[in-house]
Every structure is written in structure tokens, then in C-alpha cells.
Amino acid sequence: MTISLNWRVLSFGLLLTGSAALSPAAVAKPPVAAVVQSAPASRRPGHAAVASANFLATRAGLEVLRQGGNAFDAAVAVASMLSVVEPESSGIGGGFMAVLHRAKDGRNVFIDARETAPAAVDAKDYVNPDGSPNRDTALSGPLSAGIPGEPAGLVLIAQRYGRLALQQSLAPAIRLARAGFKPDPRLHGAIAEEQKVLQRWPASAAKYLRNGQAPAPGAIWRDPEQARTLERLAQHGDDGFYHGGTAQKLVDAVRAAGGNWTLADLAGYQAKERTPVSVDYRGYKIITAPPPSSGGVAIAEILNILSGYDLAAMDQVQRVHYIVEAMRRAFRDHNAYLGDPDFVKMPLAMLLSPYYADGLRQSILPDRATPSSMLPRAEPADAGMHTTHFSIIDADGNMAAVTLTVNTILGSKFVAAGTGVLLNNEMDDFALVPNKPNVYGLLGSKANAPVGGKRMLSSMSPSIVIGPERTMVIGSPGGSTIITQVLEGILHFIDGENAQQIVAHKRFHHQYLPDVVMVEPGTFDAATSAALEQMGYTLKQREPWGFMNVVTWDRKTNQLDAASDPRRPSGLGQVQ
Would you call 387 a catalytic residue per the annotation? Predict the structure, then answer.
């Protein structure tokens, strides 16, 4: 069922009159994306907007903003709440990537909280006796899990960019984990889908199942063990997760179930600040994710190619043709060259050069598709589909674009006993078996081979777009389609569309291999589809994908606009 998730304005005065817990009566069934109004101010919005995948997470962000926090404090609140209410997509057992903009000095920074491989990683653990990939080991259980990055990333954001103490920003998630909530249909569906795998490990079954079965709809969900883990993080920062009692419990649980984590793996983890990728396109500056994300480089390369065309003057067939050809070439390159910058030398200057884009543009025929087989072969690598994103702009103009993931649905399905932490299965995002596909049918390259301490390649593409009069914060889940979703959202924003229009647009996607254009039903009319097929494209319909969350700021009118993707239910649970 599709539900439109349009934002509504909530008065700042109303929030001030509510209780510290923001009682359900005060904000009954609030929207997933919300705008909080206050007095306007020059050169800043004067009010705030949050767009996330779950209204409980959006509400947590609003609560922290109301308490005097900024966008970065709100980001910590939203991310930690999503760990409680949307574990199928993200959590403190996973990682995230974020692009932040600090208003007071214009600083743009990328936060890399991507997971890392444990030091004892051994590719043989992911290969069957016949040499084929062992999909079960790569996707389920402790061997599939990288060292989590989200806790360290949240601490970094709070300490370097926030106004509030970490305890205050984590408080809404801790409170709800203890008090309980009614899970939304997506979480119920995820548990039912993975029920048999969850039954393998007692701590997983205890957390997600009732008498071996998925909980009944409407049942109250409480997560006291994760609440205690979040409390230790709140009290002790990094030490509360990567050292001491939590670290010991994580390692003991992983090793007891056949994994290879050590205390040194956890103690050695660091979230990192990196310089974002920045590209100028038709008067707009796009600030996006650098490696170990492949997304920002691919988006920049696509935009550099498209800068040589007047897309606005084209009919739909020609416009789609040139966009798909740019996608094809950028995916070929990012799959071949990109990996963890701490381990791999990458020709970023070449890939981001407009002169390189000029050369790629010359290989595009005006009336024919270029078969991917005619381009030099590259080996694709990709991130998981079950991911989440949120966007925030606060009253001062601080911005946060944050994409979080545990990889596939419910990650590894393995909960570390005594912690409430559901671990990721990001090890499958490495090229575990050379020239063999991962769970998404994608091949891997040497640049993305597993090495202890290395970050696996990702497609997460949190981005900020700054134009002459308007600004946008954007991102989405969706594996390799993250890149093309964000690209298409950027193009629609530059065309002047608002947040609701941007998230609702039908989508298409090409990633070099397989050589097909994936399209949502209804993306093209019959004539457009026929014309594209005549040009040599193979179109393949696929169920709608992504869950984009966008905030825009019209700096001329000082209007904020927040919107969540209408493709998924909003998850209207109830606080108890």
C-alpha cells in the first residue's frame, strides 16, 4: 500500500507546551517529514525541518531541536531512534555516511562511519568447497559482520559539531527502547521474512520472535538491552561501546557463534572526517560523498558528462538517452577504480575532471545506445538495498544529510547476546570471491577486496545541493540505485521542483552491468518505451525502489519544505 507522506507545519509554540516526552496527544500521528516554525531571521531559515523514514525518528529530531540542539544533535537523535524502531535498515550494529554543512563558517565535511573488516578476515570463509560463493556465510551470522561504525560516528558528530551533551541527544531513543512502541508493517514484514534465520541464534530469537514466531501486529516492542548499550555509549562515548563491558560482550558473542572479532578490532575502530566531493553543475554546487562511497564520484562524473548537453531543450527520449549513457560510463569507472582511500590509490583527479568527461561524451552516439560490452570491462561492486536516509536543516542553516545501513534486511540477523545489538552483514559488500557475484548479482574488483581494517565500498550518497536561491539536502536507500536516485533528484531540483515532487518522481536506473535499464511501472509511456527500445535499450520493469527523504530551503522566500518518499508506508506506530 502506498501512502503519501507530505509534511505539515507544527508550531514551535505547540512543541514548547508539550511534555519532555512529546506525548502522543500533543503530536498524534505526526508526519515522517516535518517543519518546525519559529521567528524568521536574515540569512538563516529561522525554523527547522527533518525528513526521515519513520515519524518516531523525525519526532526525536524535533524534540532535540526544541531543547536547543542544532541539526547535528538532531542527527544523533534521529539515527539512534532509527536503530530502535527501524532495525531492518540501520542501527548501532551498522554504519553510516554523512555530509554536514556548518552555517557559522560554511564548513562542509564528510563523516565516514563505514564498517571495517576484522583483522582475521579470511576470504576462504566465504567460499564453498566447489569454489562458488558461500552466500549464507556472507549474509548471515557473525562472519558476515564488519566492525560497526555508527556508534563512533554519532560520538564524533556530537562532540565536534553538536551543542548538546551526547546523553541528551541519545535520550529519546533510550527512553523509547525502554517504554516500548508498536512496530510498523515494514518491521513486521522483515521479521516474518527472516524468521527461520533469526531462529538460529538464541539472542536473535529472543529479541525478534515470540514463541518462535514473528510478533503479532499491534504487539508492544521493548528493547531494554539496546537501551542499556545506548546508555553506556551516552555516558562514556566511544569507550562505552568499543572498550569495556560492551566490547567484551560483542566479542564473546561473535566468537562463540563462529566469528573472528577481537577486542583489538573494536578498540582500533575510528570514524573519520574526509573532504566531500564537490562539483559545479549549471550554477549549482553539489556536495556529496567521497570514497569509500562510490556514489559521489559517480554523481559528479555523470553531471560532468551531462553538462555538455542542454537537457531542458530535449524531448523525454533524448533526455533519458543521454542520462542513461552517462550513468553507464560512470558506473563502469566507479566499479573499476574505487575502494577504501586508506588502502587503494584512485585516479580521482581524472574521474572528476571535466576534460575526462569531455572524452566520455564523445563516445556517446546521439541516436543509439552503447552496449556495455563495447566499453572496457569493469567489475561492479555495490551496497545493500535495506538502508535508510534522513535530511535535516535547522534554524541557523546547519545541514545534515545522513545515510545509514546494516546492508540487507535485518543485516546479519545475528544479535550479540547481552547487548541488544543487531550486527550488519556488510562483509558481502567486499569482493569476497573474485569475479563472482554478490547477493545482488554484482561482481567485485580487486580495489574492493577484503583486508583487515579496510572499509568496504558503498553506494551511499548523502548530498547537499546549493543553488543561486535554493538549497537541498537529499539521500535515499536503494543499493546501487542510490546513486541514480540522488542524481535524478538533483536534476529535478535544478529544474525547479519542490521536495514533494522530487521524492515522488518515477525512476529509472542503469549501472553498466547488467546491460538493462530498470524502470518503475509508469515511468515512460508506450511511445517513449518503444523509441528507447528502437535505440537499442532493453527496458526491464521493477517494483518501485528507494525511500528518499528531502529537505529544501528557498532562501529567497525563507521557506523550508520537507518530504518523505510516498513509495513506502510511513510506519505510524504509537508510543506507549
Answer: yes
